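MODEL INPUT / OUTPUT PAIR
PAIR INDEX: 1
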Amino acid sequence: MGNKLRFGIMSTARIARNSMIPGILKSERCEVTVIASRNKDKAAEVAEHFNIPKYYGSYEALLDDPEIDAVYIPLPNHLHKPWTIKAIMAGKHVLCEKPAALNEVDVRQMVDAAKEHKVVFAEAFMYRYHPKHARVRELIDCGEIGEVRSIHGSFTFNNAADKGNVRYSKEMGGGSIYDVGCYPISAARMIYGQEPLAITAHASYSEDHDGVDMMAHGLLEFENGLGLTFECGMWAYSRCSLEISGSEGRIELPSAFGWERMEDQAQILIHTAKGTREERLGAHNHFALQADAIAAAVKDGIPLPYSPEDAIQNIRVIDACLESARTSTRVLIG
């Protein structure tokens, strides 16, 4: 397969153009070989902009190309499962945008198909590959903030005026919980190292936006009295933060799920009785780091830091969150 993992990009979606393709191009072990779109002219335009060697006017043509090893899928949520399965059947490794699919049954089928065909499957929670999250783990393990007591996460933005956006289509898997609520949910599971027991969620819906959840608040219950409180939304002023409260201090990530473009930007704030300390880890492109982790899994057999089964666990929690919001009840997560 050569020295670099060859990616095909399935769609000219904004996250592909603005984030993933630039990230792959900055990675050490990957390259973009092909891009495909249902609009061949659009594929040609993006290919020219990024100097991508080939482009196609169909996703099938991309999967038929023997010169790609892996496929990145940033399609609307309801298309993740069918195109992931097709890519796996074509022998391609898959990096699929979050959420991996719209329910646990579908995600499990995707994971099982990848195992059966012996290809790598990963859900694209890029933020987890940024070194600031490993540093947070170190700070917790060394007792910097004492015993962890709670986590609070916020991920909101406001583009409600763009009513044609796929985020506002129920059929396509729109809604704030699928789109951004999944981030603090995955982060709490990562930090606590356990799965939640129950969820209580409350959401606001908009008939002007196909009835999807526009804003949601939730409480995830973990063992030993631990919890996550979170807010997510698509019609609130932008926030992207995570706070971990301990018995002796608090860790704050002002841009928990984003990546800082400036070398001197504070990424971690540690608040204790001694005062507040800032830590700067430098500018790291977590899209590039994610791509290199996929390459290491494919080429070196190094297990991904987050297994395919993690995607199953995460959608199980999201399923329960959506059910709780719909029914206004506390939902146990079995």
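PAIR INDEX: 2
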Amino acid sequence: MTKSCGILLLFLLLSSCANSQEASPRLVGGPCEGCEAVLEYGDRELNAVDTLPEYESAADKLKLTGTIYEPDGKTPAEGVIIYINHTNAEGIYPTRGDEEDWAKRHGYLRGWAKTGKDGKFTFYTQVPAEYPSRNTPAHIHPYILEPNGKYYWLETYFFEGDELLSNDHVSSNPRGGTSGVVELREQKGMYVINRDFILGKNVPGY
């Protein structure tokens, strides 16, 4: 091996290590129960669209979509993973009994999408219900994992018109830059939610 080839190889190895370190997962935005679930996609090949279990059989189908932007609020963010989880139509997080890690709590109604160059993501799932105790409105939990390794929770989705919704569920500085209270719009036999996010917006310590 020539001296120049050796130097080039060393440079490539150092660059690879640096990139690996930059991509090491690190929680930002303060304490977060369940944020690590965004890392649990395993060897799945993620893309911009994910269909959650039981979508086809769901009585109230839901299409949840949006665009994720860079911190400037204008440039679409590529390579961002967004994770969601929610209850089923009975208000529970259903499990099959073989779940591991955060799936034990989040159940199997969860999914991951990874944005392309246009920053868009889509989930096909079902409209969740409130907990059987009726002490919390129906909701969907979203989390973000950026290509640089930062991960954090975003403002929870709640639904306009939910009788359990109160001012306690509305933030004046929503994480992700958009209100978590959304409208369920009927469209072609399903409900549709469109909500965009801005990376790091209103995330403490970002």
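PAIR 2 NOTE: The longest strand covers residues 61-69.
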